[in-house]
UniProtKB/TrEMBL annotation:
PROSITE patterns: GGDEF, HAMP. It catalyses: 2 GTP = 3',3'-c-di-GMP + 2 diphosphate. Keywords: Coiled coil, Nucleotidyltransferase, Transferase. Residues 365-501 form the GGDEF domain. It comes from Alkalimonas cellulosilytica. InterPro entries: Diguanylate_Cyclase, GAF, GAF-like_dom_sf, GGDEF_dom, HAMP_dom, Nucleotide_cyclase, Rev_trsase/Diguanyl_cyclase. Signal peptide: none annotated. This is diguanylate cyclase. CDD domains: GGDEF (cd01949). Residues 310-337 form a coiled coil. The keyword Nucleotidyltransferase applies. It is an enzyme of class 2 (transferase). One of its GO terms (molecular function) is diguanylate cyclase activity. Residues 398-450 form the HAMP domain.
């Protein structure tokens, strides 16, 4: 086994004894080694650390006295492979420290290592550089331009409509690719069960091949090393993919297939859950990713991750609302139907009658109303049984409904074996014709009823025609139709009567 794959590098004894605080990380491995001086300076109990231990070290920007956020944390940036030279102060200490990092190719290792030295301000660090600021002038201008562009894109993303989301994400990716001088930039999302990842959005420089179509539902097993590093460090920064360790052979093959020389990916998270990642590839040449590249990538990743979450929340809220509305409609429908016959029930009828009376009063239209009642239904039940009675009710309901098909016509179960019928007729003749049609439609069913005069199932109908005004009372209409029905029963059944104001029951 090569030396750099063992738990502690064999050259460690030399670094451990240095009189300067040094952190060392092999870029291909998650562990970070702190030498004796670093352990003393940073109060670290163990020499082997991981990135989460480093996140706990609070650093302060000594001029502004501001606590450095995770995104600006120079220790994390340095250990992720960026070259950093920056003054910092440890929380709780007054001493200014010079934090300097360097990527080194140690002759006895295969991959790159990052050396981070923390030296007192006046001291001479082993890898201390000239006193240059983190950014040179060009970088500063680029950083400003990028930030301006991002604030424009993020403003548009705040209330982005779901159908516009892809365009805005692609804009952000193209800005990221251009400013990081990359050849490709992209977004991958993990499936909910974290078993696969899919390339959802991509930007490619002119002349560079796209691989998006082949990168759908890529299983964890296809890129195990990448998956592991991403889950533990939330960042995957590789300057030269040929220097990846042996355990990353699957990744090396995939990078080769896509002609990738350098790659940089940063996780998109929501409350510590990995949603996916945003990344950049170098195809034409290698690139030692800078602190600015990482900052940009994290910014774009956060922006896209938050927007996707936001759109998903809004979509699921909308879907929930629609489901609720649908359930409500179904409930309303259920509450307005008669359970046995399936036609409108009394409650629905009352609402519609009120509505029709008002409509006809407004437009000065006549309204016809009928009550239809099955003849000798008690005897039908008694002779053929209650279930046969139920079937007869269903059959009558279906026949009446099928006979009345015109707009505005309504048949409802009024109660027991009685049906209420609303018809927008224009005169008494029309009402008479309709009543006769309904009566014969039941008679023609030829449903046996030996205890009825016609020897078959029949109905009697009481009908009335009104010219409603604002004062017309629904119960008056019902009373009139009921009076006419009583007359039809008295006349011998299987017939209809139209209400006449002077025809009082007798
Ligand atoms: N099977 C069944 N019968 C019902 C239902 N609702 C009411 N009935 C029956 O309908 C019958 C109505 O009887 P009555 O009001 O005496 O009238 P009728 O026998 O039809 O006599 P006329 O109306 O005078 O011709 C009763 O026996 C009720 O039990 C129902 O949902 N199913």
């Amino acid at each position: 086994m090569p030396a750099e794959q063992q738990d502690t590098p064999h050259y460690w004894a030399i670094i451990d004894a240095l009189p300067v605080a040094v952190l060392l990380k092999d870029t291909a491995k998650p562990q970070i080694y702190a030498n004796q001086q670093a352990r003393l300076l940073l109060s670290l109990p163990e020499p082997v650390l991981n990135l989460s231990d480093i996140r706990l070290i609070e650093l302060i920007e000594p001029d502004s006295e501001e606590l450095l956020s995770l995104v600006q944390n120079p220790l994390l940036l340095a250990l992720s492979g960026s070259v950093v030279h920056q003054q910092v102060r440890l929380a709780g200490s007054k001493q200014r420290l010079q934090l300097s990092s360097q990527l080194v190719q140690l002759s006895f290792t295969l991959s790159n290592s990052v050396l981070v030295a923390l030296t007192p301000e006046q001291g001479k660090g082993v890898i201390r550089d000239s006193q240059r600021s983190v950014y040179d002038e060009n970088e500063l201008e680029e950083a400003l331009a990028f930030d301006k562009l991002m604030s424009l894109i993020s403003a548009e993303l705040i209330n982005v409509q779901p159908e516009q989301l892809d365009i805005h994400i692609e804009d952000a990716l193209s800005a990221l690719g251009e400013f990081c001088h990359a050849d490709r930039s992209y977004v991958f999302l993990f499936s909910d069960d974290m078993q696969t990842m899919s390339n959802t959005h991509e930007w490619v420089r002119d002349g560079i091949a796209s691989h998006k179509a082949n990168l759908q539902q890529v299983p964890e097993a296809a890129l195990p090393y990448f998956w592991r590093v991403m889950q533990s460090d939330f960042i995957f920064a590789v300057r030269d993919v040929t220097l990846l360790p042996d355990e990353a052979s699957a990744e090396q093959q995939e990078f080769e297939r896509e002609d990738i020389q350098s790659v940089l990916c940063s996780a998109m998270t929501n409350q510590d859950k990995l949603l996916g990642f945003v990344g950049c590839d170098m195809v034409a040449r290698k690139r030692a990713w800078t602190a600015s590249d990482i900052r940009r990538l994290k910014l774009v990743g956060n922006m896209i991750g938050n927007t996707i979450q936001n759109v998903n929340y809004r979509l699921s809220l909308k879907q929930m609302q629609q489901e609720l509305m649908q359930a409500n409609l179904e409930l309303q429908e259920l509450a307005s139907r008669d359970g046995l016959t399936g036609i409108a029930n009394r409650r629905q009828f009352d609402t519609l009658l009120q509505h029709e009376l008002q409509r006809c009063a407004r437009y000065q239209l006549p309204l016809g109303f009928m009550l239809a009642d099955i003849d000798h239904f008690k005897q039908y039940n008694d002779s053929y049984g209650h279930l046969a009675g139920d079937d007869a009710l269903k059959q009558v309901a279906r026949t009446l409904s099928q006979t009345l098909k015109r707009q505005g016509e309504l048949v409802a179960r009024f109660g027991g074996e009685e049906f209420a019928i609303l018809v927008p007729v224009s005169n008494a003749d029309e009402l008479t014709q309709l009543a006769e049609t309904l009566r014969t439609s039941i008679e023609q069913l030829q449903q046996e009823h030996l205890f009825s005069a016609a020897q078959r199932l029949t109905i009697s109908i009481g009908a009335t025609l009104v010219n409603p005004d604002k004062t017309t009372n629904p119960s008056e209409l019902i009373r009139q139709a009921d009076t006419a029905l009583y007359q039809a029963k008295a006349k011998g059944r299987n017939c209809f009567c139209i209400f006449q104001p002077d025809n009082l029951p007798g």
